[in-house]
């Protein structure tokens, strides 16, 4: 599965610690991350990461493009809810795309750990449910 990892500055260490704690889970998936977050994960967790641009420089939009193309299976985006950011429209667009494409997105450490626990159990049925629903809608076979 393709998993996007994004964290605002005050949340980067928290995300790195999550990845280190669940290294075996993350090691069996393809990881994508924005700028500095990807660098920190690669250096500290010693896992390969497809690094994209920094969030404010278009990295959030790059992740969004992968979501829109149905090439991302989950997004962990640890946000700082107390700080207004210049690129907030990009963040909002990314979260909207996750909703449109039915991609699970965790925005805090609690929901991130729940998502990782599902990955750990190989409980990945959400992708099958989404694909079946979309197929039924296209083919007109909805129940």
From TrEMBL:
GO molecular function, one term: methylglyoxal synthase activity
Cross-referenced Pfam families: MGS (PF02142)
Record: residues binding substrate: 8, 12, 34-37, 54-55, 87
Top-rank EC class of the record's enzyme: lyase
Domain of life, per lineage: Bacteria
Active site: 60 (proton donor/acceptor)
SUPFAM superfamilies in the cross-refs: Methylglyoxal synthase-like
Function: Catalyzes the formation of methylglyoxal from dihydroxyacetone phosphate.
UniProt record similarity statement: Belongs to the methylglyoxal synthase family.
The protein, known as: Methylglyoxal synthase
Organism of this sequence: Paenibacillus flagellatus
Lineage, uppermost ranks: Bacteria, Bacillati, Bacillota, Bacilli, Bacillales
């Amino acid at each position: 599965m393709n998993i996007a990892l994004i964290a605002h500055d005050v949340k980067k260490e928290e995300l790195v610690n999550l990845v280190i704690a669940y290294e075996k889970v993350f090691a069996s998936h393809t990881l994508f991350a924005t700028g500095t977050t990807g660098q920190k994960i690669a250096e500290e967790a010693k896992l390969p990461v497809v690094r994209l641009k920094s969030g404010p420089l278009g990295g959030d939009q790059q992740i969004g493009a992968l979501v829109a193309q149905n090439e991302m299976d989950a997004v962990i985006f640890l946000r700082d809810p107390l700080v207004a950011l210049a690129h907030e429209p990009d963040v909002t667009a990314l979260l909207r795309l996750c909703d449109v494409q039915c991609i699970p997105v965790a925005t805090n450490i609690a929901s991130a750990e729940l998502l990782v626990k599902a990955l750990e159990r190989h409980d990945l049925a959400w992708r099958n449910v989404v694909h079946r629903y979309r197929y039924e809608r296209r083919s007109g076979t909805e129940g």
